[in-house]
Specification:
The structure holds two protein chains of two kinds.
Chain A: E1 7-9, H1 14-26, E2 31-34, H2 40-45, E3 53-56, E4 66-69, E5 72-76, H3 81-86, H4 88-93, H5 95-102, H6 107-112, H7 115-121, H8 128-134, E6 138-143, E7 146-151, H9 152-155, E8 156-158, E9 161-162, E10 169-176, E11 183-189, E12 199-207, E13 213-221, E14 228-229, H10 231-236, H11 244-257, H12 269-291
Parallel strand pairs in A: 1-3, 2-3
Antiparallel strand pairs in A: 4-5, 5-10, 6-7, 6-10, 8-9, 11-12, 12-13, 13-14
Helix pairs in contact in A: 11-12
Chain B: E1 2-9, E2 12-19, H1 24-31, E3 50-53, E4 56-59, E5 72-74, H2 76-79, H3 81-85, H4 91-98, H5 108-121, H6 127-133, H7 145-159
Parallel strand pairs in B: 1-5
Antiparallel strand pairs in B: 1-2, 3-4, 3-5
């Protein structure tokens, strides 16, 4: 039950949504965008947030489109986890995003929850952020002064904080089309199936014809309040033979980088740090098997 | 603040005025007397409030009634309507009874709706797929083993 009264808005275009947000901001009234609502509604039921206005993006036309645009995939922010998991285009050109979407929550949550909603909410244990960071995704954002594009490394600012302004709407997420020989994997450590990630690791590995590493990218959630990318070692590992030593080097780098994990009920900080090592090892190993 | 919504509930047109903060589950239970949809946790965890919204299962405690205007909602009452009219149980209900797939029954309406969605998409699910398909529905009585058995029998029967 939601205790605080609210005004409900149902815009059919992004422009209309932005106008409503601006109006609320001008009036000094708290407004929240509803994009699936799988985190927002529980938070409202618990009384953790009590916005005066709810602006539902669930009926904005075209916000759930997925299309290939040259060497990028353009994914509408209103795309549900289910659609991402089942999309043949995404499975073919950016399989790690499908794999990630398929392990979020449960069937009902995936049927309703959206990519844009998850990003806007930015729970530090959410699965998309580390994957979008490793993919160098770009985020199209519309506000009262027009449109801007933000890089993944700049959108996740701090614990449950993004660089989206109160009067802006995230409309599209752009990820690169991966070459077919790229091996990818997203693995997560949860207490029960469908739980939030205690640790989640995404890996993307390209191999040269001689089996050496052409490129490796790793993104991790649970290692810090924002997703961590292993940028330093990603460069030094290029050209190296992908074997157990290689995988161990990535896992060690992940452990070193994860120096500040946030302790939680089911996992102390040092335990999470150790799990970062374990799950990085699994992610890179799986990615290498899929690349072969 | 109130709003008037038009939607389809259990295949029948429905128009109602709702408080804008009303959850879909409360709307179904309190305004339409469809109390087969249960409210458990109100945080999207337990799945007792599972209903079918435009063909897909959702947890009705995470949906605002005002947000489903124009949609089609099917609750456990609507979904078992045909069987009840002929005085029978639906095959899924039958299998649940036979395998003791319920004890207190609180999770059952949501569980049955999740099972029907699973079987619609995967008529012959493996045990892992069954467990994956009902992961959004918590049962504190059965330990799930009997539910899995019930689903396996339905799949077996329908493939014969």
């Amino acid at each position: 039950m939601i205790r605080a009264p609210l005004q409900f808005h149902r815009p059919h275009s992004i422009d209309e949504a932005v106008r409503l947000l601006s109006q609320c901001a001008q009036d000094g009234e708290d407004a929240k965008l509803l994009a699936g609502g799988q985190s927002l509604l529980p938070s409202m039921n618990l009384g953790l947030v009590a916005p005066a206005h709810i602006i539902s993006l669930n009926h904005v036309t075209g916000l759930d489109a997925i299309r290939r645009d040259d060497d990028m995939l353009a994914i509408g922010a209103g795309t549900t986890h289910r659609s991402l998991a089942e999309s043949e285009v995404v499975q073919t050109y950016c399989p790690i995003l499908s794999e990630t979407a398929a392990c979020i929550g449960d069937v009902q949550v995936r049927n309703r929850g959206t990519l844009g909603g998850s990003i806007g909410h930015f729970d530090p244990a959410a699965d998309y952020p580390p994957v979008l960071v490793l993919l160098d995704a770009a985020f199209r954002i519309v506000g009262p002064n027009g449109e801007r594009t933000v890089a993944a490394k700049d959108i996740f600012v701090d614990y449950m904080t993004t660089s989206l302004s109160a009067d802006e709407v995230l409309t599209e997420i752009r990820v690169p089309v991966l070459s077919p020989d790229t091996g990818t994997a997203y693995v997560k450590f949860t207490r029960v199936e469908g739980g939030f990630a205690i640790v989640g690791v995404g890996a993307c590995l390209g191999l040269n014809s001689d089996g050496t590493c052409r490129s490796i990218r790793v993104g991790i959630c649970g290692a810090a309040p924002v997703p961590v990318r292993l940028t330093a070692i990603e460069d030094t590992l290029k050209g190296k033979t992908v074997d157990d030593t290689f995988i161990e080097a990535v896992a060690d780098a992940a452990y070193e980088t994860a120096h500040d994990p946030v302790a939680e009920l089911h996992a102390a900080a040092d335990y999470k740090r150790e799990m970062v090592r374990v799950f990085t090892r699994r992610a890179v190993k799986t990615a290498s098997e899929r690349a072969a | 603040m109130h709003t008037t919504i038009q939607l389809t509930v259990n295949n029948a047109p429905c128009e109602a005025t709702v408080d804008t903060r009303t959850l879909l589950v409360d709307f179904l239970r309190d305004q339409l007397d469809l109390t087969g949809t249960h409210l458990g946790c109100a945080t999207g965890n337990c799945g007792a409030c599972t209903v079918v919204l435009d063909g897909l299962t959702v947890k009705a405690c995470t949906v605002l009634a005002a947000d489903v205007a124009g949609s089609a909602v099917t609750t456990i009452e609507g979904w078992t309507q045909d069987a009840r009219q002929s005085g029978d149980l639906h095959p899924i209900q039958d299998a649940f009874v036979k395998h003791h797939a319920l004890q207190c029954g609180f999770c059952t309406p949501g569980m049955v709706l999740s099972v029907q969605q699973l079987l619609k998409e995967k008529p012959n699910p493996t045990e892992a797929e069954i467990r994956h398909g009902i992961a959004g529905n918590l049962c504190r009585c059965t330990g799930y083993a009997s539910i899995v058995k019930a689903v396996q029998e339905i799949a077996r029967m329908s493939s014969e």
